[in-house]
């Protein structure tokens, strides 16, 4: 799969793409990233891409033309185009799963007070990563790209995400590793028992307990 990211701050993605699982997924050819600098599509003299809002108000608004030109420079018949925006639909694991089946995602990072509303005629949807406001869509595009990439076939083992948080509307079960006792805190006995069925039952019970405590909204 390919992910194209349209941004005014391409350098923000350098470290993200050069570490850990994302780096390995790229090296294995499982996912391809393309970072597009929207500013190179400005037709104005000083590479201007924003202007003041009609009707007045604070801040600057990104102009629609350079953004649409940037979209068109990478878009094919297989592309899905999403604007990263705090007003978008909230990103969830279920959305990550459906995005991971796409051939080509184009993620547009909004900045300043957002993009001229007419961008809506050129996108398939708007995505937010939660109820708070970021200075721009770049971190959100990284969050979405990260969550999607690890679900692409071959990037990590299927078992790693089949039982994890949110996959079945439950949080993950607690995990432990050596040593068996640390500072008087022991690993639960059942995990040392070698009894696979008891371990399975304990884990499901812990998932339900943890979800009830931390995220009761997931159980409704
Ligand atoms: Cl996608 N963009 C911005 N600027 N803020 C956000 C967001 C996106 N998602 C949550 N907050």
- The CATH homologous superfamily of the largest domain is termed SPOUT methyltransferase, trefoil knot domain
What is the distance, rounded to the nearest whole angstrom, between the alpha carbons of the first and last residues?
Answer: 34 Å
The strands making up the biggest β-sheet line up spatially as: 2-1-6-5-7
When the domains are counted, the total is 2
**Largest pleated sheet:** 5 strands, parallel
| Structural class computed from helices and strand pairing | alpha/beta
Count the helices. How many?
Answer: 8
Nearest-angstrom radius of gyration? 22 Å
Q: Uncertain regions: pLDDT < 50 for 5+ in a row?
A: none
Strand share of the residues?
15-25%
Return the CATH class of the largest domain: Alpha Beta
Based on Cα principal axes, name the global outline.
elongated
Kindly state the percentage of residues in helix: 25-40%
- List how many beta strands DSSP finds: 9
What CATH architecture of the largest domain would you give?
A: 3-Layer(aba) Sandwich
Average pLDDT reading: 96
The third-level CATH topology of the largest domain is Alpha/beta knot
Strand and helix order? EHHEEEHEHEEHHEEHH
Write out the distinct hetero groups bound to the structure: 6-chloroguanine
